Amino acid sequence: MRRFAFLAIPLMLAACDDGLGEDMEPEAVETEAPLEDAALDLQGVGIVIPAQSGFEELAVPFGSARAPTEATLGNVLGSAVDESADPDDCGLTFTEYDGVTLNFRDGQFVGYWAEAPYVPETTRGELLADENVSMVEDSTVGEEFTIGAAEGPDIAGLFDGEGDDAGVEALWAGENCIVR
After folding, report:
1. Residue 95, CB half-sphere, CA atoms under 13 Å: how many?
2. Which segments of 19-140 does DSSP mark as H helices, in order?
3. pLDDT the model gives residue 152
4. Do 153 and 9 meet the contact criterion of CB atoms below 8 Å apart?
């Protein structure tokens, strides 16, 4: 089973830059299966890959270029299952892996959407007991909550139900194309 590493939202390192011009296409990244028991630390400012399976801890902050972001996360998540080069209605392109979708704007990593196995296996009651977790009033997308201090950055998420025993369905941060 894969693990989810959930830590406080620290500031991350400055964005990586691979030197590609905006009009250049990144090369395809060749990866295979995801690491067994892979863990990701989803943060309000990007994704951290904790040290595991011979890899040292790696930070992939928002603002990182697409090709190195895909290469770094592909080593942990395996091969992409879908991707787009043409912007959607929100101006975003994406690369989708099993459980995680990375969003890009103008070739820069700007957001993510995560589902099982990369969301915490905790209940709504347990998560809402944390003072930094709160429900979004009058959300039009479901049982939405946020994690983080009011000054941000934060992570948003959805519970799969209303009761205290409901689980976490999804987490996201940064730019996402969510119809409200």
Report:
1. 24
2. 66-77, 124-128
3. 75
4. yes
Q: Residue 146: CB partners within 8 Å, gap ≥ 6?
A: 133, 134, 136, 154, 155, 156, 157
User: Beta strands of 85-167 (E only): which ranges?
Assistant: 93-97, 100-105, 108-114, 133-135, 143-147, 155-159
Model pLDDT, residue 81 = 96
- Encode burial over 46-76: b for 16+ CB neighbours within 10 A, e otherwise: bbbbbebeeeeebbbbbbbbbbbbbbbbbbb
CA distances from 67 to 46, 80, 161 (A): 15, 13, 37
pLDDT at 5: 38
Give Cα separations from 172 to 126, 145, 160 (angstroms). 19, 10, 15
Cβ proximity of 87 and 78 under 8 Å: no
CA 159, CA 141: separation in Å to the nearest integer?
A: 11
